[in-house]
Amino acid sequence: MNRWLGRSLKRKLSFILILAMIIPIISLGFFSYATASSLSEEKAKLTGMNILRQLDTQLQLMVKDVESMSVFLIGDEDVQQYLRASRSNVVLRTSIIVFLTNLVFSKDYIANISIIPNDSKEVISYSAKQFQGRSFALPEDSTLSEEAPSEKLWSIPSGEEAAAAGNTITLTRPIRSTYTYQPLGFLAISLNQKVISRYLYHSGMEGDGYVLLLDRDNRIIAGQEQVSGARDLATLFPGIHLSETSSGFLNYGKGSDRITLMYYKMPNTDWTLVGVIPFAQYSSENQYLLRLTALVIAAAALIIAAILLFLISTITRPLHRLSVFLKQGNLEDKLPVPSVDEVGRLIISYNRLSRRIRRLTAQVKENEARKKEADLLALQAQINPHFLYNTLASVHWMALMNRDSGIAVMVDSLSSFLRFSLNQGEEFCEVQQEIAHVESYVQIQSIRYPQQFTVDFEVDPCCRHQKMLKLLLQPLIENAILHGVLQTGEHGRISIKVEPSDDEMRFTVQDNGAGMSPQVLEQLRSSLSMGTQPRSGSGSYGLRNVHSRLTMHYSGNTGLHIESEQGRGTRVSFKIPESINFLA
Q1: Residue closest to 234 by CA, chosen among 254, 212, 201
Q2: What per-residue string of b and e applies to 150-168 under the rule 16 or more CB within 10 Å gives b?
Q3: Which of 281, 308, 521, 542 is the right S-S partner for 475, CB 3.0 to 4.6 Å?
Q4: pLDDT in tens, 112-168
């Protein structure tokens, strides 16, 4: 695989770019799928919880209506008169039954209304058609006592009572005298569980979801899963436990049997609405999302791969031609430029490089010829210094023989000057050697220009054995003699001073010669700092040479510092480190 990729830039680019584009797209697809799945689940939960709240509103209205109806019947004068009477009153009983009949017919969710006297009088009761003939007995815990002046109780009959009552939910309330507040009997209003279950069934829960209504003991009051008798939630979902909070979500079960439970505890009652949504509902929606995401990813991957292959082919085609051209190794031909982009500029650069290679090849051939000539000259140059020293020594000896001390001193100084200058190509020397070299030069110049200047040396002893770049002072002294003191026509004075300054040595050459005007001084400083060629005759060749050598060999601000005043002289100084610290 590596070998197959390594043999072609096009393959490498195609593999890397397609991989770099496909991986983010696939990752984005999985992220989108996971996000959409989570959103669909959250949407189903929120929708289910809204449905439970809507059912709560309907059931609350139903409950409030029944409780208001019970209060109205308890306070009805006919009911009070019938229950206070010592014996049954047929007329009142008939009137009350007619009234109860109207109430039952007006509410489809009312199964039965019963008024049960506390004595031996007949029970007044009317039931809806499907509940006629049923017995609506009071629950065992609905007893009336003096210690409990008022109570109401919603109850679900169980066992034999449930079979007799026919799946109802009953509200029982005590009836007391409106005059003496003495107990007179009970009022029982039963709700039709099937009607409530029908409300729950048509609630709009998504897919195969359904809603259950539980009482305070988590027994099922109504719902799709209701069976005969009072079946509790733990029977349907073993181990389930609803939190004490007013509403929430629970996940129950594993695998394909997983479900989501939503519960909402109805305020003002002890009932709880429970919504059940199978996870299969989410799975069906998620499968659609998964297929859609896979289709989008595949289409995007194919489109991106096609675009990348086209772009890579466009980029690598001229590079392939350049590779073939380079293999041929023909530098004389010019490669055509297909475009002006980076690849085109690369080919242009190659054409320029080939032209430069041809020029350099010709130059190398020429340099080889010159090198042979230089080798001969170098051979000859090895003889010249020894010949020059021997000749000067002979002249010096002849001057002494002829008792001409001036010529002897001048020749001896010249010999010392040249010997130090050549010095077998070494660049550094001790400060005292540089001073001796300058003294030889001053000796020669004082013979050439007798009685025209005096040179003073002041060298600190601690600086004498320090190393320095050689031939730095002589150009400065030459400049001070020729362009300084000799220009005044009077006897001049030049002072050379070497002194320590922190971790550096300061060299100063000062004269009392002609000096420079501010304009000339500024031009000289600019030419030194910019490295430009000075004007002819300005006398700054030596200064520029010293300045360049200082900046090239030493780090820091080691260039020349020039101060001058016209008619009063010039001061040139520089600093170098005490230990050798020069640039490579």
Answers
A1: 212
A2: eeeebbbbeeebbeebbbb
A3: 542
A4: 899 999 888 888 888 876 666 555 545 544 444 443 335 778 777 655 554 444 567
HSE-CB for 122 with a 13 A CA cutoff: 12
**Which of the 8 DSSP states describes residue 465?**
T
Which DSSP string do the residues of 51-64 spell out, in sequence order? HHHHHHHHHHHHHH
Residue pair 115/95 in contact by the 8 Å Cβ criterion? no
Q: Which of 492, 459, 457 is nearest to 570 (CA)?
A: 492
Class of residue 458 by CB neighbours under 10 A (exposed 0-12, middle 13-18, buried 19+): exposed
Reading the block at residue 140, the tokens are: 């065992």
Six-digit token pair at 309? 């292959």
Distance CA 571, CA 479 (A): 11
Structure tokens at 398: 């002849």
Report the distance separating Cα 434 and Cα 471, nearest Å: 7
* Structure token pair of residue 125: 């009761």
CA distance 379 to 386: 13
- What is the per-residue pLDDT across 308-348, written as a single tens digit (0 to 9) for each? 777 777 777 777 777 776 666 666 666 676 666 666 777 77
pTM for the predicted model, two decimal places: 0.46
